[in-house]
Amino acid sequence: MKTSSLIYDGSFNGLLTCVFASFEQKLKVTSIQPPGSSQNDMFAEVTEIQTNPEQAKRVWKAFKRIATTTGQQNIYYAYLTETSGMEIDILKYLEHTFYLKASIDGDYTNMHVLKIAKAAKQLGREKHRMEAFVRFKLTKDDIYFATINPDFNVLPVIKSHFTTRYSDQQWLIYDIKRKFGLYYDLKKTEVISLDFSAEWSSTSKNEGFFDASEIEFQHLWKEYFQSTTIKSRINKKLHHQHVPKRYWQYLIEKNPLHI
Fold first, then answer.
1. What long-range pairs does 79-85 form, CB within 8 A, spacing at least 24?
2. What letter would DSSP give residue 232?
3. What is the superkingdom listed in this entry's lineage (predicted)?
């Protein structure tokens, strides 16, 4: 049986459409890759799959009838890690679930289940840390603005948290790595894209962008933090455990590049 390598648009619906095509056309799929990925199997027939929302919906609806809530979340979280090759693990997970007509969540003897569970745990950890460490700064347009640079695509899963917690103010969280963000206008939260100049940075002095009161507040906060820190009681090992260095870029008191 000839093998197939599927190319999709990188979206979750696109991935589920690939799963639908695999079943519908009885394909032996060896890889599912987003655009621009290198072809791993030179002997496989390469097929580009166009995203079909209805087909994606059918696959997910069928999966939800069998899978646990944890299993559903793990699949989506694993997809959001953007880990190379994760798409084929998700396909195998779904195939096995449909074959058994039973949830396989927790069956860690299955390499695909184990890999997806580990990836989902990593995404969950990143989600909680982003929710804890994101810091907004007030712009001259009265919008609270923050940039993030996470290892994984967490914006879709932190949307609900920030919409609920900051429902009384306009805010924008922008992922500078993936070049899209979430904007809340006091009514709804939407996905947006922005085009920043190469010289712009949210951590540098942008007096023309941020409100004067914001600049003053950050100066006061840094002074307060420094004055209340008891150097003799600093436990660096414990501190790094709870606030890893890669998150310092978001914290005014930790990042010297902040205003």
1. 79/12, 79/15, 80/123, 80/152, 80/153, 80/154, 80/156, 80/157, 81/119, 81/120, 81/122, 81/123, 81/152, 81/153, 82/152, 82/153, 83/119, 84/37, 85/31
2. G
3. Bacteria
Convert the pLDDT of each residue in 11-38 to its tens digit.
999 999 999 999 999 999 999 999 877 6
Q: Which of 162, 148, 149 lies closest to 190, judged by CA?
A: 162
Which tens digit of pLDDT belongs to each residue from 52-68?
999 999 999 999 999 99
Helix axes 12-24, 86-100, angle to 10 degrees: 50
Helix%, strand%, coil% for the chain, nearest 5: 45, 15, 40
List strands edge to edge, sheet with 28-33: 28-33, 3-7, 45-48
| Predicted structure pTM score | 0.81
Nearest to 77 by CA among 54, 105, 57: 105
For 182, phi and psi rounded to 5 degrees?
A: -115, 130
Q: Tokens for 207? A: 């007096």
**Quick check: helix, strand or coil at residue 191?**
strand
Containing H/E element for 5? strand 3-7
Where b means 16+ CB within 10 Å and e means fewer, 197-225 reads eeeeebeeeeeeebbeebbebbeebbeee
* C-alpha pair distances (Å), 188 with each of 139, 153, 174, 182: 20, 21, 16, 10
Top-confidence residue, 169 or 245: 169
In sequence order, the 6+-apart residues with CB closer than 8 A to the CB of 9 are 34, 35, 51
The CA distance from 17 to 56, in Å, is: 5
